[in-house]
Structure formats: C-alpha cells, structure tokens
Design a protein that fits this description.
Radius of gyration of chain B: 13 Å
Mean pLDDT of chain A: 91
Radius of gyration of chain A: 14 Å
Largest interface: A-B, 28 and 21 residues
Helix content of chain B: under 10%
Mean pLDDT of chain B: 92
Order of helices and strands of chain B: EEEEEEEEE
Number of strands of chain B: 9
Low-confidence stretches of chain A: none
Strand content of chain A: over 45%
Low-confidence stretches of chain B: none
Number of helices of chain A: 0
Strand content of chain B: over 45%
Structural class of chain A: mainly beta
Oligomer: heterodimer
Shape of chain A: globular
Strand order of the largest sheet of chain B: 1-9-8-3-4
Distance between the termini of chain A: 31 Å
C-alpha cells in the first residue's frame, strides 16, 4: 500500500457516458498528478495540481476534466471519450519542496475501457 | 522525450545480482537520477535516487559514474517478485513537476 487509493479499479464505459475517476492520498502531500499509460507506451503526464491549483496541463483533450477540491482528493471527469482513450490511468502524489527531490507515490490505477 | 537510454529487456537468475544500466549523457549539474519500477498493471514504485554519490537503501544500490553520464541500479539478490519494468529518470530537484518516463528495462527474474 502506497497511501494513494484510486477508485474504481476497473471501468468500462460507452463513448456517450460520463464517468469520474477518484484518487485520494493519505500522506499529507501537497501535489497530485494524473498520468495516462496506454498499451506499450510510456507513462504520459496529463495534469498536475500543487496546493489545489492546476500547474500543468499537457495538451490534454477537453473531454478529460480534472478537479482538485482539496489537497487529499483528485478527480478526473470523463465525457464523450474515444476508444483510443482506453488505458491505465494513474494518480500520484508528492510533497512539493523547493530545491529538494520529490518522490512520487502512485496509486494502483484505474483500467479504463471505452467501447 | 526521455533523457535516458535503457536496454529494453534483461534476464537475471533468482538469487543473483541484477545490474540495470542507464545512459544519461546529457544530464545537467542540477539533475538527479531517479529509479522507479512498475510491476505488471500496478502503479510505479520509487526505488532510489542520487545526484553524484553512490546510494544504497533497503531495496537497491545506485552507482553513478564520476562524469554522471551513466548509472547502474543494482538489486543485490533478485527474487521473482522483482520482475518488473525499471525506469531510469533524470530531473532537476526543483522548477518542474515532470517525471518523463521512457520505455524502461523489462527485467525478468528466472527461477
């Protein structure tokens, strides 16, 4: 257990559905991340929140909408997804400290299948 | 793009040391070398990091060459549970939130 939980662990949705992925960290960290991992591809950083403010948005389509209501929770809202969005979605957290390394702790991921 | 180069796959006999190399010839003076691993269908797990000196923890040792252009992660006594994809990442200590994961080395520990 890393202290980062994700729900659901598996999700199957149609292209017209709206669903949300949830991430919760119990580590007292102040930064949270969403990554996408497609089959046979490296992890891609999608969004970063630091102190509940979005600080990175790596050209992610608007059908993915993140939300960070507090430092412990992170959501990824999904709507009108495409089959190519099927992937493992990983959440991570870290303690953002100036001039210091910040090890990231990852959750187990949500395996998303878009039909 | 990832700033590191790793062999795509390696095998190691159970109980033997696994030595995973990484080239990072363009590393900057303020960049750390991090190692993570990802066991099948799980989230990546931090292993170790270093700047200049060799480092050791309960999981592994990290050997960084004097010119810092390459490093080696050593798992001293590999077990079957060490079978995973190992990622070598370089990043500065501050000023960015990005970890750029490459394709890593797929280590298979053989019984």
């Amino acid at each position: 257990e890393t202290g980062v939980t994700q729900t659901p662990r598996h999700l199957v949705m149609g292209m017209t559905n709206k669903k949300s992925l949830k991430c919760e960290q119990h580590l007292g960290h102040n930064a949270m991340y969403w990554y996408k991992q497609s089959a046979k591809k490296p992890l891609e950083l999608m969004f970063v929140y630091s102190l509940e403010e979005r600080v990175e948005n790596n050209s992610v389509p608007s059908r993915f909408s993140p939300e960070c209501p507090n430092s412990s929770h992170l959501f990824l809202h999904l709507h009108t997804l495409q089959p190519e969005d099927s992937a493992l979605y990983l959440c991570a957290s870290s303690q953002d400290r100036p001039a210091s390394y910040n090890e990231q702790f990852f959750g187990p991921g949500t395996r998303l299948t878009v039909l | 793009d990832a700033k590191t180069t790793q062999p795509p796959s390696m095998d190691c006999a159970e109980g033997r040391a696994a030595n995973l190399p990484c080239n990072h010839s363009t590393i900057s003076g303020n960049e750390y070398v991090y190692w993570y691993r990802q066991i099948h269908s799980q989230g990546p797990q931090y292993i170790i990091h270093g700047l200049k000196n060799n480092e050791t923890n309960e999981m592994a040792s990290l050997i960084i060459t004097e010119d810092r252009k390459s490093s080696t992660l050593i798992l001293p006594h590999a077990t079957l549970r060490d079978t995973a994809v190992y990622y070598c990442i370089v990043r500065p200590a501050s000023g960015t939130y990005k970890y750029i994961f490459g394709t890593g080395t797929r280590l298979k520990v053989l019984a």
